[in-house]
Amino acid sequence: PAAAQQIYEAMLVERPDDLEVYLARGRARLGNGDSRRASEDFFIAQGVAKKQGDAAKQKQIDALLAVALLRAGDLEQAVFVLQPYIRNGQADAGMQADYITGLSYGGKAERAIAEAREFWPDLLAAPVVGVRTLGDAYMVNAKYDAAILVYNIVLQRDPKNQLAMLGMAAARVQKGQYGEAVALYERALALNLQLANIVLDDCLQYMAQGKTAIAHSVFALIKARIPIRSDFFRQYAERLKQGESPNEALKNLRLLQGQP
Questions:
Q1: What's the confidence (pLDDT) of residue 52?
Q2: Measured between alpha carbons, how far is 203 from 214 in angstroms, rounded to an integer?
Q3: Which are the contacts of 174, defined by CB distance < 8 A and separation ≥ 6?
Q4: What is the pLDDT at residue 89?
């Protein structure tokens, strides 16, 4: 909120090197979806922590910075921030998982898989977040059978892990296992309707791939829960206009909605 930002600004005028204010504002911005400006706050906090020689605080800041950079699409920079902790063995499970995510979606999926297996040789004992990111790496590398196997391990250990459900659903679609995919999408949406944005992204991807039948089947799950004329679809269409290939994406959205 604007009022909170004004408070942070006033505090920083009085205390321009106050680490905790930068951290608080960065977290608030990250929570509000402003990843770019959150990363700016964390960069400043990082410099202050270095001056103070506080290694523990610097690690905390770098973990937050990596998350902000990943969400902002700065994958290479996120990997760069995390790499020293990976190399010296000080990265926790969350940092390792974010590192694997950065590699996977940054065009280095093979390396991501190799490093993830090195981090977590026993997937049954590994942190669940790490196992899921390994599944994502297999997906990016089009190794769908391996992805399904890994997502299954996640769901055995955490039956309500919604991101694993969505990952496995996408893998099932690529394998042509449409019935299983629809069931997974339905299960995930029943647990959390806020996943509708991600599911709709998948629908448009399937339309672009020529998989129109499964796209319409999955879209029907969203339509059954969210009215076509709701703000959700209007806001989603506005977001598409800012993305890549907006004309094709908007056309496919209209086709899913049954519009000319």
A1: 86
A2: 8
A3: 142, 144
A4: 92
State the DSSP string of 136-172: HHHHHTT-HHHHHHHHHHHHHH-TT-HHHHHHHHHHH
Cα-based angle 198, 200, 204 (whole degrees, multiple of 5): 120
Tokens of 75: 């994958």
Distance CA 184, CA 164 (A): 10
Dist CA 41 CA 146 (whole Å) = 39
- As a whole number of angstroms, the distance between CA 88 and CA 249 comes to 44
Query: Can you say whether residue 210 is alpha, beta or left, with left for phi > 0 and alpha for psi between -120 and 50 degrees?
Result: left
Instruction: Name the pTM for this structure.
Output: 0.82
Residue that has been written with the tokens 């690529």 in this structure = 174
- CB atoms inside a 10 Å sphere around CB 228: 12
